[in-house]
Amino acid sequence: MSRKKLVIIGASGLTGFKLAKLASSRYHVYGTYKNRQFRMDSVEAVHLDITDVSEMANFFYAVKPDIIVNTSALHNVDYCETHQDEAFLVNVSSVRALALQAEKLGAKLVHISTDYVFDGKSNSKYKENDPTSPANFYGKTKLLSEEILAQFPNCLILRSSVIYGWTPLESVGLNSSSGKPVNFALWALNTLAKGEVLKIVTDQFSSPTLADNLAEAIMAMIARNVKGILHVAGLTCVNRFEFTRRIVSSFGYPENQVTPVQSNDLKQVATRPKKTCLDCSKAESLGLKLLTLDESLHRMRKDIEMHSPKLIGPHLHV
Question: Has 33 been annotated as catalytic?
Answer without folding.
Answer: no
